[in-house]
């Protein structure tokens, strides 16, 4: 029997017919779109109808703008890709359906890793269903470029700079990245992890400690971060993340620092993650796992048919088959305990092993750049400061540390 928190009686009284859902998301690049097709296909196999509500734009900013307008018009979609602090902000406003009755009835909680359950819960209520866990702190490098130049992968940021200088001397772009604020924030986050370490990262972005944000460690991190501006592509402005990945694939750039959604893009281009393109923890962050947890939330509905459709979609998202196929294509790892990783590539297997190790050792860290560590307004303030700093060759690291602390304090 399909479970509804609405009521079992209402469910039994419904005619048997195809369910349909409208799902808002921003999974629109090549690899992401293929992953969405997995979900659409499995939904259609059940005889249901999918109404796609895809909004272009990396990082989801445009999607959230559209979602707010729909919600304020009392016409939200049945489901939406929400995660991190944005998920909790929508939950606090009372828009989201509590999935706790369904989770308890279907025995979901033992299937969820503690981090996943904690991240998706608010005041004891489950507010979304996970779709996959992304690792953010990855370094991707073109193996052929490195072999031709006789270079070894950098394991810290000082080595990264030395390697980048040698690549630049040979006319090779060292670092594939565009100037979108969220891409810059991902790069900064990895520098903060590698140069500052776990304690620094926690104090700065989880505790928002003013002394840490303005102290010598932050100045050192910002100085290293600023140094990397010399290694970006000539046509850096306007370069989307997946276009940066295309540069990496073609050998137009040697390295990319980005989450493992890169892997979905590689697979879409018939590159082999872990072979043609090597995957390593970002410099200095070995043992640490900066995560982005993707999830889908259900907006409150009154129509029993819509409630039933939401329940069916939620159940589908929790199946091992969906989790394996979706994440295998998207580049992430299943958000379930003890997933079958036998069909995944070597980068995913490493990610899963590193996730388990980080979970045991207390080294799982929510990503600031991906909205898992700080509230939405604060994240936007951080990205504005970092983007201005990275793009201004005259910017002062000491002054920028003060600006960063002020931006975070004003948005608490």
Rg on CA atoms, Å = 21 Å
Q: Helix proportion of residues, in percent?
A: 40-55%
How much of the residues is beta strand, in percent? 5-15%
The unreliable regions are 1-15
Name the overall outline.
globular
Structural summary, described in words:
The structure is a single chain. The chain has 412 residues and is of the alpha/beta class. The protein is 50% helix and 14% strand. The protein is built from 19 helices and twelve strands. The protein has helices spanning 8-13, 30-45, 61-72, 84-92, 100-106, 114-120, 143-149, 157-169, 181-196, 198-206, 210-214, 216-227, 241-250, 261-268, 304-317, 320-330, 346-361, 376-390, 397-410; strands at 20-25, 49-54, 79-81, 121-122, 125-126, 129-135, 138-142, 173-175, 253-257, 277-281, 289-298, 364-366. The strands form three sheets. Strands 1, 2, 3, 6, 11 and 12 form a six-stranded mixed sheet that branches. The chain has a four-stranded mixed sheet with strand order 8-9-7-10. It is globular, with a radius of gyration of 21 Å. The model is unreliable at 1-15 (pLDDT under 50).
């Amino acid at each position: 029997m399909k479970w509804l928190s609405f009521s079992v009686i209402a469910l039994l009284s419904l005619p048997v017919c195809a369910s349909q859902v409208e799902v808002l998301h921003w999974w629109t690049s090549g690899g992401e779109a293929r992953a969405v097709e997995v979900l659409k296909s499995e939904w259609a196999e059940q005889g249901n109808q999918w109404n796609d509500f895809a909004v272009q734009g990396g990082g989801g900013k445009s999607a959230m703008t559209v979602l707010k307008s729909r919600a304020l018009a009392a016409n939200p979609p049945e489901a939406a890709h929400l995660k991190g602090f944005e998920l909790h902000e929508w939950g606090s406003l009372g828009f989201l359906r509590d999935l706790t009755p369904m989770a308890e009835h279907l025995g979901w909680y033992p299937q969820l890793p503690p981090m996943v359950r904690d991240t998706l819960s608010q005041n004891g209520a489950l507010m979304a269903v996970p779709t996959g866990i992304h690792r953010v702190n990855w370094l991707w490098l073109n193996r052929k470029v490195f072999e031709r130049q006789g270079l070894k992968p950098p394991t810290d940021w000082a080595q990264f700079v030395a390697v980048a200088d040698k690549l630049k001397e040979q006319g090779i772009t060292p670092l594939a990245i565009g100037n979108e604020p969220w891409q810059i924030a991902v790069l900064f986050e990895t520098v903060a992890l590698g140069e500052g370490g776990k304690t620094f990262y926690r104090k700065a972005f989880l505790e928002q400690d003013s002394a840490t944000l303005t102290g010598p460690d932050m100045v050192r991190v910002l100085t290293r971060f600023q140094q990397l501006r010399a290694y970006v592509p000539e046509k850096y402005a306007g370069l989307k993340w997946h276009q940066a990945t295309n540069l990496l694939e073609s050998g137009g750039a040697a390295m990319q620092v980005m989450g493992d959604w890169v892997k979905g893009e590689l697979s879409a281009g018939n590159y082999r993650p872990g072979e043609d393109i090597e995957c390593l923890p970002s410099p200095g962050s070995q043992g640490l796992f900066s995560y982005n947890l993707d999830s889908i939330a259900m907006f409150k509905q009154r129509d029993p048919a819509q409630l039933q459709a939401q329940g069916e979609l939620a159940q589908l998202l929790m199946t091992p088959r969906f989790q394996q196929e979706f994440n295998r294509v998207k580049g992430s790892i299943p958000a379930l305990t003890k997933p079958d990783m036998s069909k995944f590539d070597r980068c995913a297997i490493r990610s899963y092993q590193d996730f388990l190790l980080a979970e045991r050792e207390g080294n799982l860290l929510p990503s600031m750049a991906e909205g898992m560590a700080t509230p939405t307004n604060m994240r936007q303030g951080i990205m504005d400061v970092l983007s201005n700093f990275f793009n201004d060759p005259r910017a002062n690291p000491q002054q920028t540390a003060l600006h960063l602390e002020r931006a975070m304090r004003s948005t608490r």
